[in-house]
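Quick start: what a row looks like.
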Amino acid sequence: MVWRALNDPEILRQSIPGCETIDKLSDTEMAAKVVAKVGPVKATFTGRSSLTDLDPPNGYRISGEGKGGAAGFAKGGATVKLTDADGGTLLSYTSTRRSAASSPRSARG
């Protein structure tokens, strides 16, 4: 059940703050549009994610990157593990991320 939810675009869209769309491109790739506030700037990020190291129903590695125009870019990933725990499922992960903001350019006359 949890494995299916982690791979269902609609469930993912509902669980990601600011996510407007997620489109499944293949069994291992998705594209998304997310509105996020970065400091004082509200930006729309568009990006793609891919799944690797698939081990159904135990986990995978997800990595992705997105661009937010003047707000810059974000890139990151996570290793996701699912384990049985007390009649349910425990989801654990380790993640990495990197982001950079675009700096305003000034015109010289």
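That is the whole record. The first strand starts at residue 19 and ends at 24. The chain is about 10% helix and 60% strand.
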